[in-house]
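Exercise 7. Given the components listed, write out the predicted structure of the assembled complex. Treat all entries as one system.
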Amino acid sequence: MTALTVLQVANLVLIVAGAVLTVWLRDLLASVVALAAMSLLLALQFYLLQAPDVAIAEAGIGAALTTAIFVLALRKTRRKEEEE
Amino acid sequence: MSPELGFGVAAAVLVALMAISVLRMAIGPTVADRAVALDTVNTLVVTTMVLLGAATGLVVLVDVAIVYALLSFVGMLYIARYLEGGLK
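Answer.
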């Protein structure tokens, strides 16, 4: 087991943590923040898998575009998710 | 200590710091705490990319980190504007 494999596994654990956090948080703005962190770590995972071009695309779409669009959508709607 | 082991240990420490920041994102009481945690993760990811680019000696990998730093800044800018109450 090389050092790169250890990094990849640790990073995958963080990606899953970010995804669970995105679903679990009730404040939708915090959820968007967690989603941004998840896509960020996903880009790092692509980078670790020696796909820097895919990492650039993921950074552009995930970090900039998705966050901006979700925040703009939140501005038009409610921020808090209702408890059932 | 061989250079490869040194780079590996440094990258492992950075990923451990990322885990601590994700923990803060989970328990952070306010959204501002979570936004700062996201910015910390951003910085740590860029640092890890530059570190691994230096370890492999490929300049193209550093370009990814530069693009990444720019785009993560734009994303944080949107969240900060929303928190401040702007973005009207």
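Discussion: Residues 3-78 of chain A form one domain. The interface with chain B takes residues 3-4, 6-7, 10-11, 13-14, 17-18, 21, 27, 29-30, 32-34, 36-37, 40-41, 43-44, 47-48, 52, 55-56, 59-60, 63-64, 67-68, 71-72, 74-75 of chain A (CB under 8 Å).
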